[in-house]
Amino acid sequence: MLDENTKTVQLAKLREKLVKSQDGVLESIAANHQLSTRDVLECLPEGHQVGVDGSAFVDVMEDLTHWGDVTFLVHTKDIILESKAPVPAGKPAGEFFNFEGHTAIGGHLRYKHCKSIHFVKRPFMKMDTCAILFMNEEGEAMFKVYVGRDEKRKLLEDQIVRFDALRDRLSQQAA
For residue 158, which of 122, 130, 126, 127 has the smallest C-alpha distance? Predict the structure, then answer.
């Protein structure tokens, strides 16, 4: 863990670097700078990310059920696991948000661990991306949901509209 002075220096260096290019795997950028993934998100240039409180978790998950096929991604130090499918309906029960039914995306999420949700638009591997990152208390991604792509790898326009509308609605509610 970095002391406050070193962290301040690292954050400044990263902000400067990200003005020139936002490309790269967020977790790798974080590791290279000894920062959390949330720190990296917060260093992105204006307009590339908007964060809202994690209390919007259920609202965001409910909205996602109407988007169609997305890429649901879990990234740990050992694996990047992707599933391309619609987000199934779910509901909170105790400490978990439980997906209903048995689809390509399923399981149980500790939704109360979600401290912030970030709507991110940035280039990645020379392509535009839109993703919603659900961040835990440690500043790491619990999971990510990426806007889907068509057969030509172009972002789905209807999902971009939904992404922008959800981001704007939640950020305005927080203001």
Answer: 130
